[in-house]
Amino acid sequence: MDATAAVARREVPVAEARVAAVVVETARAYSQQGRLADGCKALHIAETCAAQDVRRPALRDLVADMAARDRRRTLPELHHFSRQLGVPA
Hints:
The structure is a single chain. By secondary structure, the chain is mainly α. It has one domain. It is 76% helix and 0% strand. Helix 5 runs antiparallel to helix 6. The radius of gyration is 16 Å and the shape is globular.
């Protein structure tokens, strides 16, 4: 019974991963609409929810695509994020 109570009391990190997945898909949708600033904000929210999920290859590709589409470099935080992930802009 003690083991069950301990498991019930601790937070399950799966919830954060699910939130991050939804936010990443939101960022992808914003990117497809050309709303790069909104997509960048969503990516930062995803990073605060589950930083380990932001390092996945598919997300890195999304960040690289978004940074490449920001040709005028109007979103320095997006380019900084792409450098943090080690993806080309």
